[in-house]
Design brief:
Blueprint (H helix, E strand, L loop, with lengths): L1 E4 L12 E3 L2 H8 L5 E3 L2 H33 L2 E6 L6 E6 L1 H10 L9 E3 L4 E3 L1 E7 L8 E8 L1
Length: 148
């Protein structure tokens, strides 16, 4: 079944993408949850017109995202965590702490845009995270977990 996404859905697509999913997934989850609409011929026409109008705005947003990505590429963050003598930290480092470190560096980025390459960070060391600024722009940000 073809649907038009109303919002970004991880591992499925971005807002305004036309995707094909199983009918039950669309009817029982995506459409009732207002995350998608059925791609009827009239909905496709409206979608195409909206896409044409948004094209100019998207170019500006893409340029801003690329400029921000260039600044983030060379950035190395330092995140403090309480650690034991053997280098293991108490708890783990998550996207909230990375977003706070980015805010201190002067970049206001939502934690939902950040994906950590190594899911469970429980030791001191250097790691990388992906910051999804735009559909086409996702720079890698390096960060060091240091003991406090």
């Amino acid at each position: 079944m073809e649907i038009i996404l109303r919002e970004d859905i991880d591992k499925l697509g971005s807002k305004d993408d036309l995707v094909v999913v199983r009918p039950g997934y669309a009817r029982n989850f995506l459409i009732p949850g207002k995350m998608a609409i059925a791609a009827t011929p009239s909905a496709k026409k409206i979608h195409a017109e909206n896409q044409r109008q948004r094209a100019h705005k998207q170019e500006k947003i893409l340029a801003i995202a690329q400029e921000l990505a260039a600044k983030l590429e060379g950035l190395t963050l330092s995140i403090g965590a309480k650690a034991g003598e053997n280098g293991k930290i108490f708890g783990s480092v998550n996207t909230i702490q990375i977003a706070e470190a980015l805010a201190k560096a002067g970049f206001e980025i939502d934690r939902k845009q950040i994906k950590i390459a190594d899911e469970n960070i429980k030791e001191l060391g250097s790691y990388e995270a992906i910051v999804k600024l735009h559909k086409k722009v996702a720079p890698m940000v390096k960060f060091d977990v240091v003991g406090e």
